[in-house]
Specification:
By secondary structure, the protein is α+β, with helices and mostly antiparallel strands. It is 46% helix and 16% strand. The protein contains five helices and five strands. It has helices at 11-26, 65-70, 105-119, 121-138, 142-167, and strands spanning 32-36, 50-56, 73-75, 84-89, 95-101. A five-stranded mixed beta sheet has the order 1-2-5-4-3, with helices on both faces. The protein starts with 10 loop residues before the first helix and ends in a 9-residue tail after the last helix.
């Protein structure tokens, strides 16, 4: 069952704890460690999953894999998205770690969308409401939920790009 919940004040602290642990294990291998996704947007409804983006210089050699596994994250080799390497928690709070190349479109996309939604509470509210509606409509059908949500995300990114151009947006410092 897909679950969308009201914003939880504990999410930033959960990320902060995980981010410190990852920073300690990854050191300079991680050029950035950022809280991304809906749990990174104050007040926004979300799946109760902490999404963390780790930005690295390159995927090979995979210097990030052993430290992430030592920190309690399992590598998901079957992930079809070739722009990232994907890890999930082995215990503790639901956490997804997305390792992306620094400066790549995929890395910037997540940071831009997060920053836009943080700066646009009305958009965050509408997006959260849309996800809740899609959850009701699709229940356990993750593929249908994701497909429908994608069109909403791309519309948000279009507006986020206009917002970024007007402000000269650049990602701020790493979160951890």
């Amino acid at each position: 069952m897909i679950e969308i919940v009201e914003y939880r004040d504990a999410w930033p602290a959960l990320f902060a704890e995980l981010g410190l642990r990852l920073r300690a294990g990854l050191g300079d291998v991680a050029l950035r460690i950022d809280h991304i996704g809906s749990t990174a947007v104050p007040g926004m409804r979300a799946k109760p999953v902490i999404d963390i983006q780790v930005s690295v210089g390159a995927f090979e050699p995979a210097d990030f894999r052993a430290p992430l596994e030592a920190a309690g994250f399992a590598f998901r080799a079957g992930n079809p998205d070739l722009t990232k390497r994907y890890f999930r928690e082995t215990s503790g709070p639901r956490t997804h770690v997305h390792v992306r190349r620094a400066g790549s479109f995929a890395e910037q996309f997540c940071l831009l969308l997060r920053d836009y939604l943080r700066d646009s509470p009305a958009e965050a509210e509408l997006y959260g409401a849309r996800k809740a509606l899609l959850t009701e409509r699709y229940g356990t059908d993750r593929r249908a939920y994701t497909a429908e949500k994608s069109s909403v995300v791309w519309e948000l990114v279009r507006r986020a790009d206009v917002w970024a151009q007007a402000r000269g947006w650049q990602p701020g410092p790493s979160d951890a």
